[in-house]
Amino acid sequence: MTDGTMSDGVARYVRSAREAAQRRAEDLAAIRRCRFDTIAVHGLYTMREALDFNQGSIIEPIYLSSSQAYRDADEMEAALSYQIPTWCYSRIANPSLYYFENMMALLESYGFAGEASCCATSSGMAAIRSATDPFLACDAEASKRSMNFVATCQVYGGTFQQFNIRRMRECGVECRWVVNSNDLDEWASKIDDRTRFLYGELPSNPGQAFFDLRAVADLAHRHGLALIVDSTVATPALLRPLCHGADIVVQSVTKTLTSSGFGIAGAVIARRDLDCRFLPPEARADFAGYLKQLPNRDNGPSLSPMQAVLSMNDMRTLRSKVDLFSRNTMQVAEYLARHPRVERVEYLGLPDHPLHALASRYLFLVDAEHDAQHGRPVNRYGHLMSFRVKGGAGATRQMFDALQRIWRATDLGRVKSIATIPAISTHSQQGEEGREMAGIPPNLIRLCIGGEHPDDVIADLAQALDAIGGRRSVSVPSTFSVGGASRAQES
């Protein structure tokens, strides 16, 4: 109907949708009473969900379909006016994404007293853009150039570029960088009445920066602002920022959550009923739902159904996987900290790290106190660390080139250990001044430890460090393919 009334047919579909929503609300309440591992295995995909909607499939099906068909005009009207749940178009919603988003929201809000929702995105960078865009919308009284936001400078290189180039240079929205994220006074000094939100990454990639999450969240809320946190390195297995006052969490699901390395994905998870300025009422009520139905519907950073299910399958063993990676990384960090050719090791798990005590207040293996292996709260510090090689950039490259078991790549969070030199890779585009501000020297190697036995990882590091000062020939093919085109390369 177009006059504001609801036809009997539309009303019937709305009643049916409300009944289904009530059953799903019961399922949601039930799974929230379960432990973290159970949530990671099942999410909101229940036996009833499988039998009622998915032919009894015990694993979430991959709905490789662009859109949904409707029974009649009444169902289409109810769906396209958002009166009932719909998979009208996979750019907006899809059953596979529905299960993935609910699992992400459940894991990030584990132990959180309130409710949260999730919006899946095509990548971690799309998640960051999606999470920050609504706060920078213009109105008649504020031009883009009058806005600013406050962010830690120790962030992933892509985040730095998005804020520094895409926001500041191209749009004129000022990013006010916090150099020492653990200095609350520095955060406070950057905020004024034109600040739209606060943004932080912890632990940071690659420098292991960390800050007092609760204190920064309280600061944001005193100014009526939202705190957005990138928690990619920690994952919900070690840190759930919503439990400590953060309003919105962004995840590069590509990383530790999808440790197999099978694809790219991102997620925005937000608490409901945000108490912050600069957002319309519907965005404050359900920020992630607002993103799905409006901005991301129009901008299109959607996740593929195939990747949603691949990511879920990786996430089912998240807690035990992060525990293993963390324990392996601690052994490697302890070895490197004693090595005579290593200048400095950055790993929050080392007792002599200046931020160790602070990180130990926040980074805990979820539910360790409830399992038979630990039986008490246990600190874990993740899979990412970095170290500086004595001898400068040249020695660093020699050691890096000599690695045989550890992969040279820009990825992280893999089940395979991976190393990179951030100054020439992930953070190269932010320039020397930006790297100096973020504490990324040319002799820094970022190392992400996977599931191998730590003795074998240490053995590879030992022989690579021993190679400093020697020469090692590298075989380079005469041609290589870039984007499908073959280019000549001198051998």
Q: Largest beta sheet: what is the strand line-up?
A: 1-7-6-5-4-2-3
User: What share of residues is helical?
Assistant: 25-40%
**Could you say what the CATH topology of the largest domain is called?**
Aspartate Aminotransferase, domain 2
Distinct helical segment count = 19
Measure the end-to-end span.
Answer: 71 Å
**CATH evolutionary superfamily of the largest domain:** Type I PLP-dependent aspartate aminotransferase-like (Major domain)
The CATH class of the largest domain turns out to be Alpha Beta
Based on Cα principal axes, name the global outline: globular
The low-confidence parts are: 473-491
How large is the radius of gyration? 24 Å
The count of DSSP E runs of length 2 or more, i.e. the number of strands, is: 14
What is the mean predicted local confidence, pLDDT? 92
How many structural domains in the coordinates?
2
Computed structural class: alpha/beta
Summarize the biggest pleated sheet.
7 strands, mixed
